[in-house]
Amino acid sequence: MRHELRGLPGYAGRRRHRVLPRRGNRPHALTPAGQASRKRRATPAASRISGGNIVPHHHGHSQGEARAPSQRQLRVGELIRHALAEILARGELMDDEVTRMMITVPEVRVSPDLRNATVYITPLGGGDPKPAEKAMARNARWLRGQVAHRINLKFAPDLTFRYDDRFDETAHIDALLHSPDVARDLDGPAKPGDPDDKDE
């Protein structure tokens, strides 16, 4: 009497891969699929293939790589700059030293968590910028309170004041470009008969 194999108990509906015991009593498959699976497990998850070579993939930013400010940071920085410029222009800060130096605020940079703001200042009178930094730092707490009243933020950021030296760099470059030596180099080599053309 012939019986259907599928009707017998314990018969597998599909063929199972043969396995051999490994160290630690962990079986492994003897099929190409099993070998490919082991190769995938051997490859680190945090790596990528480039030109046939495995290149480690580093998460986050590398050391020294500056992260560009977000739109929210830029917007909050501009609001703080506008508020401080308005306070200084109207003379609301009762500090004779600040009034005498005529301090301007070219830029404000805000930290990603919006808790700290670096305020770059420039005294129009020129000279040593240290007194301007000290004068503004002396009034930082009062200025922080005024900024909190003018802009809608959950937390008013701590203000740190630094001298903006970009104007000095620009003036230095402009002076170099207008110097006689650089102007002569930009005009090209001296022509015969020019005063600077000397016979060897």
Written description of the protein model:
- Belongs to the RbfA family.
- GO terms for molecular function: ribosomal small subunit binding.
- One of its GO terms (cellular component) is cytosol.
- This is Ribosome-binding factor A.
- It is found in: Cytoplasm.
- Helix 2 packs across helix 5 (140-150).
- This protein has a domain at 71-173: GMP Synthetase, Chain A, domain 3.
- The longest helix has 19 residues, at 71-89.
- Strand 1 (19-20) and strand 2 form a beta hairpin.
- The chain is extended.
- The chain has helices at residues 32-42, 71-89, 96-101, 130-138, 140-150, 166-177, 180-187, and strands at 19-20, 28-29, 47-50, 53-56, 103-110, 116-123, 158-163.
- The chain is of the alpha+beta class and 200 residues long.
- It has 7 helices and 7 strands.
- A 3-stranded mixed beta sheet has the order 5-6-7. Strands 1-2 form a two-stranded antiparallel ribbon.
Determine the CATH superfamily of the domain at 71-173.
K homology (KH) domain
Would you tell me the structural class of the helices and strands? alpha+beta
- Principal-axes shape call: extended
Mean pLDDT, to the nearest integer, reads 73
CATH topology of the domain at 71-173: GMP Synthetase, Chain A, domain 3
Helical residue percent band: 25-40%
Unreliable runs: 42-65
Percent of sequence in beta strands: 15-25%
* Amino- and carboxy-terminal Cα gap: 122 Å
**What CATH first level of the domain at 71-173 would be assigned?**
Alpha Beta
Order of helices and strands, N to C?
EEHEEHHEEHHEHH
Tally the helices: what do you get? 7
Strand order, largest beta sheet: 5-6-7
The biggest sheet amounts to: 3 strands, mixed
CATH architecture classification of the domain at 71-173: 2-Layer Sandwich
Total number of beta strands: 7
